[in-house]
Amino acid sequence: MTRSFILSILSLILVACNSEFTPQNGDLVFRVGNTDFSSAIKSATSRDKDIPYTHVGIVWVHGDTISIIEAGDTAVSVTPYGQFINAAMRDGDRLFATVSRVDIDRELRDAAVGRALTFLGQPYDNAFTVDNGMMYCTELVWEAYRDASGNRIFPASPMNFYAADGTLSPYWVKHFEALGIDIPQGEPGTNPVEMSKDPHITPIHYYF
């Protein structure tokens, strides 16, 4: 997916951004990355006019500090908010990142943050497999966010690793060969693009 295509999508979004915006505890921050890994995710998960998000983290407001809980490169960890935002793909002064709010009671958002913190230190899940003691980014959100009855708010759906034209990126072939496992095509999972469009989520601030 080219930069010009991304810009053409973003130009359709008329949102005024300002420096006074402050996220709330439990907000989700979606961003577009520019690594080879991000490119492979974009080709597999983005279609038509989707904003090709490749990563997501959970806002944690503690005292006067705002951080992001994320399943990052190596493990579930806490990252300064500004550092997380500034790692997004950039075009001049614009950063391709969006803050969204989960449309549930604030107490449940706070509980989701507390639950996410219990996963700190779990290794990053390069196999994208649920319930294996490891976490990838949307899996962390999927596990953390639950309703008052303890049920997950966000659904899982069959994973896809193929591009829109039916081709498979060499990146994924090498990735899973190195792990010694089959590509988990069709297995239950989540991804940032689909999660960003969930009806429970409302975008509240764009950095572009």
What can you see in these coordinates?
- This protein has helices at 3-10, 36-45, 81-86, 106-117, 137-144, 170-179, 192-196; strands at residues 28-31, 55-62, 65-71, 76-80, 90-91, 94-95, 97-102, 157-158, 188-189, 201-206.
- Residues 7-18 have low confidence and may be disordered.
- With 208 residues, it is an alpha+beta fold.
Number of strands: 10
Order of helices and strands: HEHEEEHEEEHHEHEHE
Mean pLDDT level: 91
Give the end-to-end Cα distance, rounded to a whole number of Å.
18 Å
Cα gyration radius (Å): 16 Å
Question: What is the tally of helical segments?
Answer: 7
As laid out across the biggest beta sheet, the strand order is 4-3-2-1-7-10
Helix content: 25-40%
Largest sheet: number of strands, sense, barrel closure: 6 strands, antiparallel
Strand content: 15-25%
Structural class by helix and strand composition: alpha+beta
Shape: globular
Q: Which parts are unreliable, with pLDDT below 50 for 5 consecutive residues or more?
A: 7-18
Question: What would the keywords be for this entry?
Answer:
7 helices, two-stranded antiparallel sheet, 208 residues, globular, 10 strands, 21% strand, 6-stranded antiparallel sheet, alpha+beta
Write a short abstract of this structure.
The protein is an alpha+beta fold. It is built from seven helices and ten strands.
